[in-house]
Amino acid sequence: MTEPFQIKKILNNNVVIAGHPSHGEVVLIGKGLGFKKKPGDSIDEQSVEKFFTLVDKKEQEQYKQLISQIDEQLVELMNDVVFHIEKRFQTPLSEHIHVALTDHIGFAIKRLEQGLEFNNPFLIETRVLYEKEYQVAEEILDMIRERLGIALPESEAGFIAMHIHSALTRRHLAEIKQYSDLILKLIQIVESSLHIIINRKSISYLRLITHLRYAIERTVRGEEVSEPKGFSDLLKAQYPVCYNLAWKLAKVMEQSLGQPVSEAEVSYLTLHLHRLNN
């Protein structure tokens, strides 16, 4: 026979904090779990629909505060949303998503009710760089619309996708946003230097931002990229404007990331810039 959970704190009728000999302190989710219950009462595992662990004490406190401030229906939905993400990617997520995504969507709903909308300047890029995350984010917008009758704008799909990517990679959202801001800065330098306005839906642009994303990640990891002998000299001779611009972008990346960018990255970036400019 499995050991029961023991209630430590009731967050609302459907969500409680409980202790367990094997699982430690957990968040339990289930219809009416907290109804007419008090701390110290036991809950059988069969009554629990879902549970997750918030190991980090700071995360626990943030979650407890958050749950007390938002509608129970949204809490229930957000728990389903997180489990939907785990199911779609078949992988456990960083526990921080329970706090971060619930907080974000709760705030997005408040903004919508107040007639405010945050612009997402990186929406097209997010759709390309985090394709599956974006697709799941759109599914989450559908869940919100069906369950709560609230139609959040498409810009939110981009923000939600970033939260999903953060939870999957266990990288802080601030770090992912830093890379996104860096890509936007690099694109602005390209447009200014080449005196062009890039078609954000062109294949060349989509290839360029994809290359920049992976170039940034390789640089952060300190990975070297190989290139044929004499390749950089050939590119320098054939495409001097794009080659010099590629080095300029590399220096901006180095300054932002605090890591050297390999010469091979500059060579391949030169090719992408040439395609973009022709």
From TrEMBL:
SUPFAM superfamilies: PTS-regulatory domain, PRD, SacY-like RNA-binding domain. The keyword Repeat applies. Residues 69-174, 175-278 form the PRD domain. SMART domains: CAT_RBD. Keywords: Repeat. One of its GO terms (molecular function) is RNA binding. GO terms for biological process: positive regulation of DNA-templated transcription. It comes from the Bacteria. InterPro entries: BglG_antiterminators, CAT_RNA-bd_dom, CAT_RNA-bd_dom_sf, PRD, PRD_sf, Transcrpt_antitermin_CS. PROSITE patterns: PRD_1, PRD_2. Belongs to the transcriptional antiterminator BglG family. GlcT subfamily. This is PRD domain-containing protein. It comes from Paenactinomyces guangxiensis.
